Structure formats: structure tokens, C-alpha cells
Amino acid sequence: MSRPSVVITGGTGYIGQRLIPMLVDRGFHVRAIVRKGSESRVASGAQIAIGDVRDRASIEAHLLPGCIVVQLVGTPKPSPAKAAEFEALDYVSAHECVEAAKAVGVRHFVYVSVARPAPIMRAYVDVRRRVEEEIVASGIPHTFVRPWYVLGPGHRWPYFFIPLYWLFRVWPSTRDGATRLGLVTLKQMLNTLAWSVETAGADSRTLNVVDIKRIGSAKNKTTA
């Protein structure tokens, strides 16, 4: 049985460049929508589609009925000072992608969101909350993947706080927050996204930090 096609936005980013080879190795036909001039940054094995991820018609032209969409577009190195960028890029690209997906009739929508509630990055969290609500309202089966911070190359400074996370999980008053806003590794995140694509169907699900750690660390990965 052939696998459905996967269309990725944000395929040249931190996660997208690493996710594409994993999906290709699993037998998926992967199409990456990228802006002109970024073709060389697309991982080998993906079909390159030139488009504007902030324009509905441009996205819709590259979607396929029955495909799986993975929305990875996001402002690099997010910080509280980048609220305007979250609105202009993160929200607009996701909103337009959801509308395009509705028009085409995609099979499943995988969206990288964020853990919440959270005490900081309120503009970032708010954008992702609104996008989640739009995806739910669209009626498209979906998977929300909600990490807080992904540890990996170039993203290692939170390792210094791991002892504090351990302490916060021990104390009853801070246990819930430490669990909900826990750190996940890049490998766990990639494995969870690959699993989300492989198991994408008619059901919708939300994967929080505990789920990302569990799925991303499992030795035996589920395949479709």
C-alpha cells in the first residue's frame, strides 16, 4: 500500500531539514514549499516547490488532495521581543496554510505548537493557540505537537537548568509546571513528528511534553 504524500512548510528550518530525510527513508513522497533562492537548503530526497508560505493561493497550488501537511514555519530563535514577527510570519503562514488545506481537502494536518500555559513568551503562545483553534474549526484531522524547548545543536543553553527541573518536579507546588514545560531533545521531537506522520488518520490528537518524551524515546516506532 502506497503512503500518502507529505507537504512540508518550513522545510529549510532547524527541524524541517532533519525531518525530511527521516520521512524519505520511511518511504514518503515529500514536497517542501520554499521561497525562491532557498532551494539549496532543502534536504536531499524532497521535491522542491517554490512558493510563498504567507499566500494562500501559492500554498494551495502545491497541496495534494489526501496529503499530510506538516506546518513548521516559525520565527528563528524566538524571544519576547519578536512579537511582531510571530504575527507577520508564524500566524499568517499557518492561517493561510489551514485555509489552503481546507480548500484542497488534505488528509491530516500536523502542527508544531507550544506547551501552555506558560509564564513567558505570551505573544508566541497566543499565536499558536489561535492557530490551533482555527485548525480545530476547520474540521481537518490533526496532530498538535506541543514542546516547550527543544535541546539540540545550537540550542543547548537550557542544559544548565536541568538540575532545577529535577528539583521542581520533586516539589508538589511546582511539579505540574516542570512537567508541562519540560525540555525535550531534538531526537525526541523528530521521532515524534515522524510518528505523527506515520500514524496520521481520521483521529485528532494533542501531544504534550510527556507524550513527546514517550513517543520520541520509544525503541519500536509505529509505522503505518
What does the secondary structure layout of this molecule look like, with pairings?
Elements: E1 6-9, H1 16-25, E2 30-34, E3 47-50, H2 56-60, E4 68-71, H3 83-104, E5 108-112, H4 122-138, E6 142-145, E7 149-151, H5 162-170, H6 172-180, E8 183-185, H7 186-198, E9 205-207, H8 209-217
Helix pairs in contact: 1-7, 3-4, 5-6, 7-8
Structure characterization notes:
Helix content is 42%, strand content 16%. With 224 residues, it is α/β, with parallel strands linked by helices. It has a single domain, classed as Rossmann fold. Strand 1, helix 1 and strand 2 form a beta-alpha-beta unit. The protein starts with 5 loop residues before the first strand and ends in a 7-residue tail after the last helix. Mean pLDDT is 88; it is low at 163-168.
